[in-house]
C-alpha cells in the first residue's frame, strides 16, 4: 500500500511539473515575441535623462533579449507554480485550511508586482542619479554597456520585490503558529534595525534615498504586524480553538 501511495504521489508531482513546464514554454514564447517591444519601450521612456545602451560584444543584445524573455516567462509562471503546489497539498488540508491558504497566491503575486514597480520607478532612478553624480564628480566619461545596465537593474529591482513579500511570509508563519503578535511586537526594534540595514544596502548613501527605501519597508513590517494580529485573533476565536 505504501508503494502504491508513493507511485500515486510521484505521478501527481510529475503531472503538476508538466503543467508548470508547459505553461513556462508558452509564456517564454510570448516573452520572445514581446521582449523587443518591452526593451524599446524602456529605451523610449528613460527614467533619468538620455542613457545610451552600448554593446561591447556581438552577443550582448542577444543575451539581454533572452534574459527579458526569460523574466517575462518566470514572472507569469510563478503564480501557476504556486497554485500547482497548493493543488498538490490540497487533499491533506481541511476545507477551512484550503480556503484560507488559496488567497496567498494572488496576494503574493500582487505584492511582487508592486515591489517591482516601486523599485523600478522609484529606487532605480534614485540610484542612477546618484551614480551619475559620482561619475561627474570624478570627471569620468559616461559610456554604459547594455549588459551592465540590466545587471545593475536586476540587482536593484528583484531584492526590493522580494522584500515586498514580507506581509505574506509573516502571515503564513502566523498561520502555522511560528509567529505571534506578541513575538512580532517584542522584535519590532530589532526588525527596524534590520530593515534600516537592508534599506541602506539597496539605496544610495544619501539620507533622502535611504529614507525613501527604508520607510516603505518599515510600513510593510507594520502592515504585517497588523494583519498577523487580525489573523491570530481570528484563529483564536475559531471553533477549532475554542
Automatic annotation (TrEMBL):
Bilayer-spanning residue ranges: 17-34, 64-89, 109-132, 152-178, 214-232
Source organism, top-level taxon: Bacteria
Places the protein is found: Cell membrane; Membrane
Family annotation (InterPro entries): Sec-indep_translocase_CS, TatC
This protein's record includes keyword ATP-binding: no
Pfam families noted in UniProt: TatC (PF00902)
Keyword tags: Cell membrane, Membrane, Protein transport, Translocation, Transmembrane, Transmembrane helix, Transport
Membrane topology recorded in Swiss-Prot or TrEMBL: Multi-pass membrane protein
Quaternary structure, from the entry: Forms a complex with TatA.
Stated role: Part of the twin-arginine translocation (Tat) system that transports large folded proteins containing a characteristic twin-arginine motif in their signal peptide across membranes.
Family to which the UniProt record says this protein belongs: Belongs to the TatC family.
Name listed for the protein in its UniProt record: Sec-independent protein translocase protein TatC
Provenance organism: Paenibacillus alginolyticus
Underlying gene: tatC
Amino acid at each position: 500500500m505504501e508503494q502504491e501511495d508513493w507511485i500515486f504521489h510521484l505521478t501527481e508531482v510529475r503531472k503538476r511539473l508538466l503543467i508548470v513546464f508547459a505553461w513556462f514554454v508558452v509564456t517564454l514564447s510570448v516573452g520572445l515575441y514581446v521582449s523587443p517591444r518591452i526593451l524599446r519601450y524602456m529605451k523610449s521612456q528613460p527614467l533619468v535623462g538620455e542613457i545610451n545602451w552600448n554593446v561591447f560584444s556581438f552577443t550582448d543584445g542577444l543575451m539581454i533579449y533572452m534574459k527579458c524573455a526569460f523574466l517575462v516567462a518566470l514572472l507569469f509562471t510563478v503564480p501557476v507554480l504556486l497554485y500547482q503546489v497548493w493543488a498538490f497539498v490540497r487533499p491533506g488540508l481541511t476545507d477551512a485550511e484550503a480556503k484560507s491558504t488559496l488567497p496567498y497566491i494572488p496576494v503574493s503575486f500582487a505584492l511582487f508586482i508592486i515591489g517591482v514597480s516601486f523599485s523600478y520607478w522609484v529606487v532605480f532612478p534614485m540610484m542612477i542619479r546618484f551614480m551619475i553624480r559620482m561619475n561627474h564628480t570624478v570627471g569620468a566619461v559616461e559610456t554604459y554597456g547594455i549588459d551592465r545596465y540590466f545587471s545593475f537593474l536586476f540587482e536593484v529591482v528583484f531584492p526590493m520585490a522580494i522584500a515586498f513579500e514580507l506581509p505574506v511570509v509573516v502571515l503564513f508563519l502566523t498561520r502555522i503558529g511560528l509567529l505571534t503578535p506578541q513575538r512580532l511586537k517584542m522584535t519590532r526594534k530589532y526588525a527596524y534595525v534590520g530593515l534600516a540595514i537592508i534599506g541602506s544596502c539597496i539605496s544610495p548613501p544619501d539620507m533622502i534615498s535611504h529614507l525613501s527605501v527604508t520607510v516603505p519597508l518599515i510600513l510593510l513590517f507594520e502592515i504585517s504586524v497588523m494583519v498577523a494580529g487580525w489573523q491570530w485573533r481570528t484563529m483564536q476565536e475559531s471553533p477549532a480553538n475554542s
